[in-house]
Amino acid sequence: xxxxxxxxxxxxxxxxxxxxxxxPADLTLLLEAAxxxxxxxxxxxxxxxxGQRGDDTFRRIFDVLRPGNQLWAGRAxxxxxxxxxxADERGPVPNSEYGLGLAVQNLALQAVDLGLVxxxxxxxxxxxxxxxxxxxxxVVPVVVVAIGKxxxxxxxxxxxxxxxxRPRERKPLSETVFTSTWGTPWTPGADA
Length: 192
What we know:
The chain is of the alpha+beta class. Helices cover 36% and strands 18% of the residues. The chain is built from eight helices and six strands, in the order ααβααβββαβαβαα. A four-stranded antiparallel beta sheet has the order 1-2-6-5, sandwiched between helices. Strands 3-4 form a two-stranded antiparallel sheet. The longest helix is centred in the middle third of the chain and has 18 residues, at 96-113. The two termini are 23 Å apart.
């Protein structure tokens, strides 16, 4: 049994092709993938502000990024500000951050299918982003997603080149999945 390639091939590079643009149909498909994510009680709390390289929205999203992310994110074709709606007509929306996370994951996997790459960032000024886009009080910015075509790693500063070339690693299931009591690793095929 093997991991689905769309999951195995997803990663978060920083080297974007500064010449590549996203076709409107591809950007729409990415946002549709996000829209179809599951959410608590079908509340659909994910909200996005879309900036395409060269437009004012892209610049304003870029401007709220931390300097380390600004080193590379300006080469992306799209910068997407992801926010979560914390209330709707029924009242508070439970698990809204989880709902946004699922939407962004759908978008990231759809990007892999389209031959695109994404990089998700928490490194931005959340309050400045809320002000820059006049977000209502019940809409909370959470993530910026850079989207585009993979570029040449050589365009990055040396430190980031090294990070790009590192092998992708994940903690083993024995450290993240438990049974019986916390800390007791779950083992495939083991009796509970």
